[in-house]
Amino acid sequence: METTKSRINDLTGHIREYIETRIDIVKLDAADTISSAASSMASWVLISILGLMMVMLITIGGAIAIGALINNYAGGCFIMAGIYFILMLVVYYNRENWVRIPVLNSIIKNIYNNE
């Protein structure tokens, strides 16, 4: 009788240890996924900021160059604004193919590669 009780107590202890270990594993997996996503997001934010700065400086340089060619610096700025407006319209009307689908595919791929 004593051996059965001690075996049941041992089994109960092992089950508790197993459950605690599984909880720790889930916590570590969650921390790994969150840290991976955060570092990826931080690098993309930095790349985006640097890219935007580059585009801004190229735009300013282009506006000055166009302004120098037509002897009207304000006109160069308006021409550059018009170019960006046309680009905005092209991207807007093609957003499904260029932006949304590749971004969704990338997110899905990242989710399934982490498992």
Explain briefly what this protein structure is.
The chain is mostly helical.
Describe the protein:
By secondary structure, the protein is mainly alpha-helical. It has one domain. The protein has 3 helices and no strands. The longest helix has 69 residues, at 2-70. The chain is rod-shaped and about 100 Å long.
Task: Give structural attributes.
115 residues, mainly alpha, rod-shaped
- Mean pLDDT reading: 84
Question: Please, how many domains?
Answer: 1
Largest sheet at a glance?
none
User: Which of globular, elongated, flat, extended, rod-shaped describes the shape?
Assistant: rod-shaped
Low-confidence stretches: none
Q: How many β-strands, per DSSP?
A: 0
Radius of gyration: 29 Å
Structural class: mainly alpha
Tell me what portion of residues adopts beta-strand conformation: under 5%
Oligomer: single chain
Helix content: over 70%
Order of helices and strands: HHH
Could you give the distance between the termini? Answer: 46 Å
**Total number of helical segments?**
3
SSE inventory with pairings:
Layout: H1 2-70, H2 73-93, H3 95-113
